[in-house]
Amino acid sequence: MIKRLKKEERQKIGWLFEGWEETMIWSYFQGYMGEAWTDELGIPQMAGILVGDFCFLAGNSKTQKAAVLVENMLRFYHKTFLLFVPKEEGWGDLIEQIYPKQAKKILRYAIKKEKDIFDREKLEGWVNELGSEFKLEQIDAKWYRKCQEQDWTKDFCSQFQGEEDFLKRGLGVLAIKDGNIISGASSYTVYRNGIEIEVDTKKEYRRKGLATACAAKLILLCLERGWYPSWDAANMDSVNLAQKLGYHLDREYVTYAVKLEGV
Question: Is pTM beyond 0.90 here?
Fold first, then answer.
């Protein structure tokens, strides 16, 4: 059977993920977040790292244990949805074979991780351009609890172990109108001296500069702390927003979205 790695064993699979510039993988190896499974602790040939809704796959996808890993990863964590991100092409064939109807092949967009690219004056300008009917609030205990009340806001804090953990390690900014959350940018995950940004806006309030203001404020807060605000884009709208804020597109990459009914 495949094996779940203990914290002290995580470096045993490190060679499989070498060179993969992905902060969620760093989160796992640095001991901040995530779990991993492998075929063998001695000389592992393949492994999967699960952080949030992402499962990063690396190594030999042709073995029986690789198939067991892909087939059971959602069940291990009682998930109905997961994004499989393969390092090698062979994993895609395996995912499509195991989930012929449930797997959807999509493109995501990696954004370059570059220091000293942000224009603080521009970022502050977008924050100040926010309409007077909106107010930016940093996520505190009150707003953490509010984020738990709606499905679309949960991912602003969902990867942390609870309120105390988020307040200790997380960081987020919300746009508020009439006491309600209408947009936000927050730490989906954390790693050493950095965060992976999650951005979303309530549908009826999109295209009003709210995501820009929230993300700009979050980036400024990160820079004050000496943290790097990493960005990974799910679509071209996200790419365009990232580029507006100062980031640069690196490359597109294949991801498999798998949704199951009743795991």
Answer: yes
